[in-house]
Design goal:
Elements (H helix, E strand, L loop, with lengths): L2 E10 L7 H7 L9 H13 L8 E10 L5 E6 L8 E3 L2 E6 L2 H12 L4 E4 L2 H16 L18 E3 H4 L17 H7 L15 H6 L3 H25 L5
Parallel strand pairs: 1-6, 3-5, 6-7
Antiparallel strand pairs: 1-2, 2-3, 4-5
């Protein structure tokens, strides 16, 4: 059964994309604060969260690997930038002119796989790309990735598996950690070991460092593949 491992990177949309009513809605809670400094601080915090919401951010990169063969591709966008496709080992780096082209290319690949593997894909990546695809009118080739939660086919979310579906809540033995923490615990090279994290994407986009985003996203996927193999060997089937 073909298994696709993927991860996305997102970048906040500029405030100018939202009209006055939308901005008032987004920052409404700031107006409840009487202190001007506190208002400004909270406003900045909310704006930093824009990357997390598909109505305030866009997909700028998707890295994909076949779990068995390690062949794959990284799709990435870059404003006013033109770059030919290139290869690093068995992975192709493909420039897309915009988000719609990127998502279209992703769904064309996804339809050839029976199962996907993610880290927190159920809570973030999948709903994000579903909603962005809907907003842009991009046809979705797989609409079954948010189905029955307590199964690993067609979607194995390692964040769910390593917490046994949140059995311990926030503070118990199976509390949830981030991918970086799990990788270090299991002896896997962290995708953050090269000095780039997801919080850097906005600044990297502004600096035109699109390939750095693509390579970071691929490191996330490589780490997820290795973590999946450890989970499958040591924990799969635990009930």
């Amino acid at each position: 059964m073909a298994k696709l491992v993927f991860d996305i990177e997102t970048s906040a949309l500029a405030l100018e994309n939202f009209d006055e009513a939308q901005q008032e809605y987004l920052f409404r809670e700031c107006q409840k604060l009487s202190d001007e400094t506190a208002r400004a601080t909270r406003r900045a915090e909310i704006q930093q969260q824009f990357n997390l919401w598909p109505f305030t951010a866009q997909v700028v990169c998707i890295a994909m690997l076949n779990a068995e063969t390690a062949h794959g591709q990284v799709l990435f966008t870059a404003a006013d930038h033109h770059e030919e496709a290139s290869e690093t080992g068995d992975v192709k780096f493909i420039f897309c002119v915009d988000e719609a082209e990127l998502l279209t290319a992703f769904w064309d690949v996804a339809k050839h796989y029976e199962t996907i593997i993610t880290f927190n894909g159920r809570g973030f990546d999948v709903p994000f790309i579903y909603l962005r695809s809907a907003l842009l009118g991009v046809p979705i080739s797989r609409k079954d990735w948010l189905g029955y939660r307590f199964q690993t086919d067609p979607h194995c979310d390692l964040a769910e598996q390593l917490t046994f579906y949140g059995i311990s809540g926030r503070d118990g033995a199976a509390r949830r950690f981030n991918l970086d923490f799990y990788c270090k615990a299991f002896g896997i090279e962290s995708p953050k070991s090269h000095g780039v994290t997801g919080t850097d994407v906005n600044s990297l986009m502004a600096a035109g460092r699109y390939r750095d985003i693509a390579e970071y996203c691929l490191r996330d996927v490589n780490a997820t593949v290795l973590l999946y193999k450890l989970w499958k060997e040591r924990l799969a089937g635990v009930k």
